[in-house]
Amino acid sequence: MSDRYCVFGNPVGHSKSPAIHAAFAAQCRQDIRYEAILVPRDGFAESVRDFAAAGGRGANVTLPFKEEAYGLTTRLSARAELAGAVNTMVFHHADVFGDNTDGAGLLFDLGVNLSCPIAGKRVLLLGAGGAARGVVGPLLDARPANLVIANRAAARAEDLAQRFAGATSPVGCGYTDLPGMCFDVVINATSASLGGELPPLPSGIFAPGSLAYDMMYGREATPFLAFAAQQGAARLADGLGMLVEQAAEAFLVWRGIRPATAPVLAMLRVALER
Ligand code: NDP
User: Fold this and answer.
1) Best substitution site from 44, 186, 190, 215 to test ligand 1's pocket, by max atoms within 8 Å of Cβ?
2) Domain with CATH 3.40.50.10860 in the chain
3) For 114-171, how does the pLDDT look when each residue is reduced to its tens digit (9 = 90+)?
4) Is 187 exposed, middle or buried (0-12, 13-18, 19+ CB in 10 A)?
5) CATH hierarchy code of domain 103-238
């Protein structure tokens, strides 16, 4: 019987993870079955328990459950511990291992696919939810000139920044603190684009030559990317590359092999634009 994996989320109907992992499995000759499971907002723990009890080997976790997944684990990787959020789970008897591959996926997409290394750049991260938590540590490891985290609920951004206080301490704030600041890389890690909304951004935050990156992806430019283009950002990127790269990292955790991502990313891009 095939080894079973899944992605838990709400909503999850838009998820491309089943197609990505099917492509990885075919490429790496791994016998796995991967499905998307829509979880009721108050039913995450039960869904995880049922899936593991039925023989599930591992899972991805997407919004809004990454912080809840963190609390359900018996063991954590160092990067998940630091993030306080889990996007990859491994089930083995009573052991529930939690990892977080979002940051590695984002940094691979920025540094390799988009040739935009973070070292020395002024970086603004929008959002303080599960996705943002996963990428702060890897962004800081890449040695930006500075990192500002802005969130609608400013206290969440301040708490997140506090969690990573160190040599290059990030600054947490609200959107009303942003006027007058300017960045080389602006990353939208909010779920605003999912609802067709734009975070309340002021004018003037995009430096000449800057990159605007939305973790969301779709056929049309998101409201954030449309705003960035209008504000003069030099480069626009959506989160399709991050999606494929974080999935490759999860596949590595589960199966011990990191698949080649370029052909899978190209396949998804064609399907998205069809
Ligand atoms: P969460 O639900 O954990 O967090 C949502 C975040 O978005 C919070 O910071 C929230 O702010 C903010 N937010 C929601 N609506 C608005 C709005 N209208 N204006 C401003 N801020 C808003 O979600 P995740 O962190 O898990 O996911 C965030 C996004 O990232 C999703 O779109 C998801 O699809 C995407 N993602 C993409 C990945 C990829 O591989 N491409 C990987 C992971 C995530 P507040 O705290 O104030 O409520």
Assistant:
1) 190
2) 3-100+241-272
3) 999 999 999 999 999 989 999 999 999 999 999 999 999 999 999 999 999 887 789 9
4) buried
5) 3.40.50.720
